[in-house]
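Q: I'm teaching a short session on how sequence maps to structure, and I want students to see two examples side by side rather than one. Could you give me a first protein with its sequence written out and its structure tokens following it? Keep the formatting plain so it prints cleanly on a handout.
A: Of course. Example one:
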Amino acid sequence: MIRTSRFEITAIEDAIKRISEHIDRDVDVYLIGGGAMIFYGRKAATKDIDTVLTSQQELEAFMKAAEKAGFAQVPEPGEEYQSIGASTIMQDATGLRLDIFHRIVCYALELTNAMKSRATTHSEHGFLRVHLIAPEDIVLFKRITERETDLEDIRVLVEGGIDWAIVEEECLSQSNSGQ
């Protein structure tokens, strides 16, 4: 199933606020893809919000809150999503998708403490804190996927300025690097 819907900043902000209304414990969520790029002003719209949570408890609380906010699990997300290794993929009535990962994306790249330290806190909504992964780390996450628009996103990030030493250091620090 090919999806063509794109969602702008107001739809992303609305989804985050709706989810936050149902969270009853501290949850840190990291945006790692197009959603982060939108908040950095480097992309106008995205077809999904790629998120990473680092603890099982936070993952469960986020998924439960998303369900209460009108998101439902996508039973057959399509071929494009088969190999990304998400804990779940959820979608609301507008077609906005959440790709929700627990620590590791595409069975390859882990959200490390160094990545978390480079992330910026975008917003806080009650118990929910939304962090944006640094552009250097977005490049790494975009590079491991096989989605058609990711190369264009990498080009946009590079044109905006990337510290390649950070990219190299993070790449080499990943537990599966060199394998």
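Q: Perfect. Now a second example for contrast.
A: Example two:
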Amino acid sequence: MSILESPLTRKLSTFVALGDGDLETLARFHRRRRSFLPGHEMIHEGQKEPSVFILAKGWACSYKLLPDGERQIVDFQIPGDFLGLRSALLRTTDHSVEAITPIEASEVLASDIFEAFARAPRLATAILWAASRDEAVVVEHLVDIGRRTAEERTAHFLLELGARMELVGLGDRTGFDCPLTQYHLADALGLSAVHVNRVLRTLRDDGLLTFQKGRVTFDDFSRLTALAGFDTSYLDQDGPLLR
């Protein structure tokens, strides 16, 4: 895959028109390619000086474990996402990241990122945008859990994943391939797996959304968007602001 075709390049180009120097720096980010099996903990909470990863293929999740063993999934990572970017600036990692599917990722040292910031300021701006966008997504997840009904939060969450997948060329308004189980959704949405199953059945029976055989299908995108109150402005993916 050329650097122009990489999911990260597609994602960052949404905010900044990348020049040749930026692309050369991104290509250097992809020199250390690694593979991980499902269930592998790529980053663990409390880790010192962790590496940063750029996800090229597969899905991962970031999460916090509670003392009683319960897990809260903070977000899911898809191709084009950074894993552990915030941890490069913190002395101790504040969450864990686990592979959900087989993963291909590029390992990037924190020193490489800092060097890139000095060498390619436009690229640095784009990476800062990506980190800020990730924070906006987590804020929206807090609203999901705190204020939206089970049907609204499930619809909103899956619409958000669809928009993120569409940005990197892996989905569209008809739907996207999704490896998540109802247990993953339960840990992300603050619901039980039984409740998630009931909500998905309701959304399907209402002709809004179908999630089966590893595929999310938006059966009625307009009505689903209205139900969830889904507004993509927080994802900030309408086109480059810096050219």
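Q: What should students look for in example two?
A: Point them to this: Residues 56 and 79 are 5 Å apart (CA to CA). Also worth mentioning: The domain at 137-235 is CATH 1.10.10.10 (Arc Repressor Mutant, subunit A).
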